[in-house]
C-alpha cells in the first residue's frame, strides 16, 4: 500500500478506491492491486486528476503494466474521467520487460498514453546499473497540457544531498520520479506537486524505506 503525501492547502483528496483484480479474462494479475486516488487541483483547465501508483512484481511486470489498461477502463467507467497519471516502480526495463514485448503492452501501444520517463532514463541508485524501472505515464489531453515540458525526470537525491552510494541505498535503491504541473490560477506558473514525488518514492522504494 503506497503512502500519499500532499499539501492539503492546495490539493484536496476527493475519493479513492482499490482496484478489484477480478477481470474475467485476466483475473489476479496484480501482486499489489492499484489504489486509485482522485484529487482536486488548483488548475482551472484541469480541476481534477487521478493518480494511479503501481509497484509491479518483477517477474510479472509485462502482464501488470499491460493490465493497467484495464484499470484505466475501470476508472473511466466509474468516474467518467480520463485525466490520469500512472506512476511508480513498473520494473519496466533490464530483463523484466523485453524490448520485443512492448508492442504487446496496451498501455504502451495506445497512442493516448504518454510515457514521460523514457526508456533511456536511469532510475537506479547503484552506479553499476542503468535501468528505467520507474515511470510516469499520462493520459488525457488536459492532463498532458498541464505538464511543464521537460520536468519529468528521476530525482537524483544522492547528488542533491551529497550522499555516497552506500548512504543513498539506505534510503532506496531507486530514485524517485517527479513531474511538475502548471497552475492555471497562477498564470501558468509551475507548481511542484510534492505529493507526486513522495508518492512515487514510496511506491518505488524496494529497500524498505520511504523517501
From TrEMBL:
SUPFAM superfamilies: DNase I-like (SSF56219). GO terms for molecular function: deoxyribonuclease I activity; DNA binding. GO terms for biological process: DNA catabolic process. Its main location: endoplasmic reticulum. The keyword Hydrolase applies. Residues 6-174 form the Endonuclease/exonuclease/phosphatase domain. Signal peptide: none annotated. SMART domains: DNaseIc. It is found in: Endoplasmic reticulum. One of its GO terms (cellular component) is endoplasmic reticulum. Keywords: Disulfide bond, Endonuclease, Endoplasmic reticulum, Glycoprotein, Hydrolase, Nuclease, Signal. Belongs to the DNase I family. This is Deoxyribonuclease-1-like 1.
Amino acid at each position: 500500500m503506497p503512502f500519499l503525501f500532499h499539501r492539503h492547502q492546495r490539493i484536496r483528496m476527493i475519493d479513492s478506491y482499490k482496484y478489484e483484480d477480478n477481470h474475467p479474462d485476466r483475473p489476479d494479475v496484480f501482486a499489489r492491486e492499484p489504489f486509485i486516488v482522485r484529487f482536486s487541483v488548483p488548475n482551472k483547465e484541469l480541476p481534477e486528476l487521478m493518480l494511479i501508483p503501481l509497484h509491479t512484481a518483477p517477474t510479472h511486470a509485462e502482464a501488470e503494466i499491460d493490465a493497467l489498461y484495464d484499470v484505466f477502463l475501470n476508472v473511466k467507467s466509474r468516474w467518467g474521467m480520463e485525466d490520469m497519471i500512472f506512476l511508480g516502480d513498473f520494473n519496466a526495463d533490464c530483463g523484466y520487460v523485453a524490448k520485443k514485448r512492448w508492442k504487446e503492452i496496451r498501455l504502451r501501444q495506445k497512442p493516448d498514453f504518454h510515457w514521460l520517463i523514457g526508456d533511456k532514463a536511469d532510475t537506479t541508485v547503484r552506479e553499476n546499473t542503468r535501468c528505467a524501472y520507474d515511470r510516469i505515464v499520462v493520459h488525457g489531453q488536459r492532463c498532458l497540457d498541464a505538464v511543464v515540458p521537460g520536468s519529468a525526470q528521476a530525482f537524483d537525491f544522492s547528488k542533491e544531498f551529497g550522499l555516497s552510494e552506500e548512504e543513498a541505498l539506505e534510503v532506496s535503491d531507486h530514485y524517485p520520479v517527479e513531474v511538475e504541473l502548471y497552475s492555471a490560477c497562477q498564470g501558468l506558473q509551475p507548481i511542484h506537486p510534492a505529493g507526486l514525488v513522495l508518492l512515487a518514492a514510496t511506491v518505488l522504494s524496494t529497500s524498505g524505506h520511504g523517501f
